[in-house]
Amino acid sequence: MGEAAALVQQALQADPDHLQALALAGGIALESGRPQEARRLWQRVLDQVPPGTDLARNIQASMDKASAARP
């Protein structure tokens, strides 16, 4: 996952609000044992998408999973 994480970070450096990169970075953070960081990144996605969309529901489900994880 190191190369993937580096590519996601490059994408975020180029565009800090890139939805896909933020979503992926949240997943990487959660898988790496950093649920608070995952929630922060996913909140940035939610702040940009209309409520009720598939993306918003999926991100909210991921945030709920991260909330259940230990920080």
UniProtKB/TrEMBL annotation:
InterPro entries: TPR-like_helical_dom_sf. This is Tetratricopeptide repeat protein.
